[in-house]
Design a protein that fits this description.
Two copies of one chain form a homodimer.
Chain A: H1 15-22, H2 26-34, H3 41-54, H4 60-67, E1 72-77, H5 83-96, E2 102-107, H6 112-124, E3 129-133, H7 139-148, E4 151-154, E5 165-166, H8 170-183, E6 189-193, H9 199-214, E7 224-226, H10 231-243, E8 250-253, H11 256-268, E9 278-280, E10 297-299, H12 302-317, E11 330-332
Parallel strand pairs in A: 1-2, 1-3, 3-4, 4-5, 6-7, 6-8, 8-9
Antiparallel strand pairs in A: 10-11
The first copy, chain A, binds a DNA duplex (30 and 30 nucleotides) through helix 2 and helix 4.
DNA sequence: GTACGTCATGAAAAGGCTTTCAGCAAGAGG
DNA sequence: CCTCTTGCTGAAAGCCTTTTCATGACGTAC
């Protein structure tokens, strides 16, 4: 059978072979590759020719083993798939594009176990820095990790690591969103919140309550519905509420995906948005500007955040002082809300 | 100033130190780590204790340098951010979860340059296999890459690499979708297609034409509108068409995102879906089941595809024979289409 | 009691590269 | 003509493992 010959990975000669081929020492070749020192013009040419001929590719692993720098930054997102994190990642990638650093991505899958594994893998592979986009790990564990590798955190504020944490005022933004509804005259406002285990979900819910109590309105526990940040859960929860004939005139969803789910539930019951029910989301996903009607929501400047995060990583790696900027969450007024009749 | 002490990365001793600490040779330690051979119980315990004390972590790089296997598989998607590829990636991650292999992701950004760079980086880092989710590279280049590392391709059929290519019958599916519209009585059907440079876009467009000519209907060039697979482009193109008062009763969008854009353009003009205009998308993104109305579209079983791809990689790596399965694209009938009055 | 196979263990090489250190030639200064 | 720089180049050590090979110790068979 053919095919077993493939065992030998075509791997374009080593620095040794190049040196022999060009009639110089490996040190000289290394110097040419890295531009570490001047080398006579004729040798340089000989070496370059040899590299061509042998299809030489430096072995990054060997280099990293010696220098201790891999020129990679590990990025772990709770979920690469989520449109929200995806946009942050885009920003990170963009900011790293014209630097010698390469991002290496991995998912944490919202699970302590998988996240731990992903972190370990990346550290073993000697990433020069680690960027966590959300995390399910405890503060202690995180501090531990920070001792092993430069660590930058998004969406978590860990005591002791403040300089490398970027968080947003979720609570304040949720308060604003809810208040907007209140100012439009709504009093019975449903809130679809995410899992109690997630910090963002908690904070947004707190903001919702802040707004209500701040305006002297009563809290209605029956209007606080739990979902899992996906469309289906919201559609289901809201349908139950509708079936129970609990009255409400507005919905504040914990994220845009749940807003979409809520929207469909309403549509199924013949309720119009915004005429019968006002709807607000959170995140401003790219798709949310194109829903019917376009969704009023809270914009998280994810792309810029990604860029800022990456730039901070770069600074840290360069040993330069760097502080993470603050980002504002802004309410994007579109067409899914209107004054209560 | 404090802080400069951090230069020394806390790095949990080497196998050498462990050996010294435990009073054995490095070979013995290595054997214990890898379970390569029997080791006396007392030494084993001594070594394990030493590893604990020194917080020993094997250096993967050194290991890879010797064994030639990194236990990673590189995954490059045209765009990690696109909901479509994201779901494929989820499948890949899932299938790799309980194997010793780790995925390492990277984006090609729909650009030959970036894709080339991403491939190089991954190969330099010695991934054991490479999985390309879409590619802008030429057949020749791809064959070249396949010579350097086991290569599996999704969305491309490269002569010579057929065994490792997974493609879907985009053309046939587009034909089906269009025919569905024709069977509902539609005659003037708009097609929003992607960039001419993309194979998928081409094929879907060809399928659309196949359906028309196959049913003996005339082609109307003015109804074929170009977009870029994003919402905005579709909204714009369709708005122009509407402004030009070109009549049509149905729209077949090249993907779901463009369908969303079209949907909004229609909404802006007071056209109802499906009452005034029928709409079909392509991809069946998770969000498309929750649009208003829920979108009729072509489902690509992305998650399963991701899993199949990953399993194939695993087989190839294990040296086992493996063939990529075939996947069917199915038309998901929801509520955005209806018979022409 | 000698010879031999078995088995745990250690020494050393290998893997591909960077970097320190020493060497050597050439030009400058006396 | 000799000494001192200056500057390019090569030898060799080192990074952290795995793996081959050799070495004893030990038990068994003859």
């Amino acid at each position: 059978m053919a095919g077993h010959g493939k065992r030998v990975k075509k791997q374009g000669g080593t620095i040794n072979e190049v040196a022999r081929e060009a009639g110089v020492s490996v040190s000289t070749v290394s110097r040419i590759i890295n531009g570490t020192a001047f080398v006579a013009e004729d040798k340089r040419r000989a070496v370059e020719a040899a590299m061509q001929r042998l299809e030489f590719r430096p072995n990054y692993l060997a280099r990293t083993l010696i220098t201790g720098r891999s020129m990679t930054v590990g990025v772990i997102a709770e979920d690469i798939v989520s449109p929200f994190y995806a946009d942050v990642i885009r920003g990170v990638e963009q900011a790293l594009l014209d630097t010698p650093y390469q991002p290496v991505l991995n998912s944490g899958h919202w699970s302590t176990q998988y996240e731990t594994r992903a972190i370990d893998t990346l550290i073993y592979r000697k990433v020069d820095a680690l960027l966590l986009l959300g995390s399910t790990l405890s503060d202690d564990t995180l501090r531990d990790v920070a001792g092993r590798v430069p660590l930058i955190l998004f969406g978590r504020r860990v005591p002791g690591l403040e300089d490398h944490c970027l968080t947003l005022d979720q609570r304040g933004a949720a308060l604003n969103a809810t208040r907007h509804l209140i100012e439009l005259g709504h009093r019975r406002i449903v809130h679809l919140h995410g899992p109690p285990g997630q910090q963002d979900a908690q904070e947004r819910r707190a903001g919702y309550r802040d707004a209500l109590t701040g305006c002297g309105l009563p809290l209605h526990p029956e209007l606080e519905l739990q979902g899992d940040f996906l469309e289906q859960s919201a559609a289901q929860a809201l349908t139950h509420l509708l079936d129970a004939r609990v009255p409400f005139t507005a919905v504040f969803a914990g994220n845009d995906q749940m807003a979409a789910g809520a929207r469909l539930a309403l549509y199924r019951r013949g309720l119009r948005v915004p005429d019968d029910v006002s709807l607000i989301g959170f995140d401003d996903l790219p798709a949310s500007a194109f829903t019917i009607p376009p969704l009023t929501t809270v914009r998280q400047p994810t792309y810029q955040i990604g860029q800022a995060l990456a730039r901070h990583v770069l600074n840290v790696l360069a040993g330069q002082p760097s502080t993470l900027p603050d980002f504002d969450l802004t309410l994007i007024l579109r067409e899914s809300t209107r004054p209560l009749r």
